[in-house]
Amino acid sequence: MDEAHRRPAGVDDQTVRAIGKLSEALEVVEEARGHLYAFHRRCGTADLTLQEAVRLLREAGHTTIADDLQADLVGRNVLPDRWTYRILEEYEETYYEPFRAAEAAARDTLVDGKRHLHEAEMKLEERRDGP
Question: What is the pTM of this model?
């Protein structure tokens, strides 16, 4: 096992499992963040596509419908007073960054900052020869 994934001297199994579980929780937070970015991108794409539909409706002579869509939906907030970039920023500042910092601090304190110790040890136990 490489040194980056070798358990520091004196660290017990329970600590390695606990830090592994904390890191697993952070992975879920990272995944949620990715979903928020996907949500942000999809909402932006929807708005740009809506603008194209409004343009086409206007060109086709359906100005009343185009005007209504323009007034009611184009650039609309997805939550009160918020576009999706604000949701991302607030999530990152309020939850994501503190979670990452807490996970890193726990690793620094308990396992010399080493990452994926639990997984590295699982690999040694479960490894088999061949592809």
Answer: 0.83
